[in-house]
Amino acid sequence: MTATTPRRAHTAGSATILLMASSLLSGGLALIRIRYVNALFGAGIAQDAYRAAFTLPDLINYFLIGGAASISLITILNRYRESGDDAGGDHALSVILTTMLVVLGAGVLLGEIFAPQYVWLANKGFRSDPARAALCASLTRLILPAQLFFFIGSVMSSRLQVRKIFLYQAFTPLIYNGGIIAGAFFLHNVVVFGKPLGIYSLAVGVLAGVILGSALLNTLGAFRTGLRYHPIVDFKAPAFLDWLKLSLPLMIGVSLVMFDGIFLKYFASVATGGITLIGNAKDLFNAPFNVIGPAAGAASLPFFASLYQQRREFDFSASVGRSVSRLFAVGLLVSAWMIALAPWLMDLFKGGKFNRADVLTVTTLFQILAITLPIWAVQGIYARAFYAASDTRTPAITGTLITIASIPMYWLLFNARGLTGLAIASDIGILIQTTALAILLHRKRLASLLHLEYPELARSLLAAIIAYIAAIGLVRTLPPATTHTGDILTIAAGTAAWAIAALIILVVARSKLPAQLLRRKAS
User: Which stretches within 351-453 are classed as H helix?
Assistant: First the structure.
């Protein structure tokens, strides 16, 4: 390795800590949001419609942008940065942002027009429930414009990430979640046209959170770093064509990471409350996942891209293997904690219109999903390794084939086991996709499977198993929790047993993980 590697690694480590801290705070806000929304609306028509209303906006973003604002654009801007051509990078950003806003604006307009038809197509159960369908179409139309501001924020964030500036990105999810909570709290009972806003208050909060937290905040940050932006619409500009070449596979390809949620909503919509129940399990599963997964992935992409563009193939492969190993190891431990304490964790969300039966269903789904926490976490690292190497085609083709092949599996398991079957299908699907990406990276000699830290993974698996046994063994000796205070005390006791047992096993097994985590925290 070169002399610059420790400095770069330190920068990536610091960025990861910042983003993880932000994600932790945002995750806390997200839990408050889930608890509050559940209490207000329960598992019924209103929340089903609200959750389903995100599908079309997310699809438009996915197919017209393909994630390129935070992936392909980082790769392109990093080339200009490495060559010292900041003016060229700003010109490329201006062309891509302005031109794609025109395209995205047209997509949003079409979405507004055909929202009812899409809602009917994408939610099987809504076809016989006009109330949910009409409400979902209205909410969809209100949320759709948020994609324009999300794209602006993503482009501006890409410029900041290339410069290893993650402060603004760290605040984005905080403001987003805060916007939804504020919308529900302040606008829920506001009367408009003779009726309270109700569930529409959440959509207003979404729009406000994206405008302020994504578009405005990141734009201010980009201009503070000296960005020179000029509105340019040019579909033939070399910078735009370069961006399109990298992004097109992402735009036309599909990924199970995206379509898993679509499949879940489609089948779960058959029963009133089904989308809300499986959605709650997914959201609560994503709370720790969003801390240890995307945060590390976002910080690693510029680092991986820099190594690849410097033709440091060995360092690139070793860095990917090291990142995957550490993230998977932490994921194993967190997964054990989630599964052991799920009944008490989920019980904290009982209240208002969200009853005991709803909590029991969500608990079962949550435990099934939690098994694959480590896999969901590392799939983002593997995908970003391809993107850093300017290969968007391979993950796009792979994801498309796996997604299409997974449809019968979701259908069969749903018909056999209902919502439980959907959770199992989600686990199997992400396992197949992540394994495929890892093997393809190895075969392309980008990231060797030999660089995975197998002894560390074995130590972490052993620690996770023992920690699970310690946590579940202790909490079962405690008196049954009948209040939220009791739940919290049980969770605290179980967490202490889990942490102590995990630490002892890791230390006795001479794992490097505790020291690595402490070193990252100190940095």
Answer: 356-370, 373-388, 393-417, 419-443
